[in-house]
Amino acid sequence: MTQLKAIIGSCLKWWRIRYQGKENGGGDDCPLCKYCGFNEIYSRIADCNKCPVFKNTGKYCCDDTPYQEHTESSTNRNATAELQFLFDLIKPRYYDNVEKELNKGGYPKKFRVWMLRAITKKESVSA
C-alpha cells in the first residue's frame, strides 16, 4: 500500500462515517494506521512516526486533529472536520496522482465522483 492509497482510504473511511452513518472503528479500520503498522499489542507511539498525520501535527495517535473531537462526540460536523483534515493532506502533495489512484478501482463510484469534484473545487468537502 502506498501512502497516497492510505490517505485516500482514510478519506473513504470518514466519507462513509459522514455520509453513510458508518461507525468509527478507530485504528483497527484506519488505512493510515495499517500503512504505518498500527498494532494494539505493541507501542502505538512508535507506529505514528511515518504517518502523514503525525508529520503534519507532530502529535501521536491523531491528537490535536478533528478525530479526537469525533471520538468524544460523534457528530456529522466532527466527521466532516476529520474528512477535511485528511483531504488537506492529499491536495498539496498528490494532486496529480489522485485521479490515477481513484481510477485503479476498489473505490465506490459515489466516493470517486465526490473526491474528484472536491479536488477540482466543484464541490466542497462538506457538501
Number of helix segments? 7
Q: Please state the overall shape, judged from the principal axes of the Cα atoms.
A: globular
Strand % is under 5%
Category from helices, strands and their pairing:
mainly alpha
Helical proportion?
A: 55-70%
Largest sheet, if any? none
The SSE order reads HHHHHHH
Number of strands: 0
Low confidence ranges: none
- Counted up, domains total 1
Mean pLDDT: 85
Q: Could you tell me how far the N terminus lies from the C terminus, measured between alpha carbons in angstroms?
A: 29 Å
The rounded Rg comes to 14 Å
Describe this structure in words.
The protein is mainly alpha-helical and 127 residues long. The chain has one domain (3-119). Helix content is 63%, strand content 0%. Helix 1 packs across helix 6 and helix 5 crosses helix 6 (76-103). The longest helix has 28 residues, at 76-103.
Structural key phrases:
single chain, 63% helix, mainly alpha, 127 residues
SSE order and pairing:
Blueprint: H1 3-20, H2 31-35, H3 44-48, H4 52-57, H5 66-72, H6 76-103, H7 109-119
Task: Summarize this entry quickly.
The chain is mostly helical. It has seven helices and no strands. The chain is 63% helix and 0% strand.
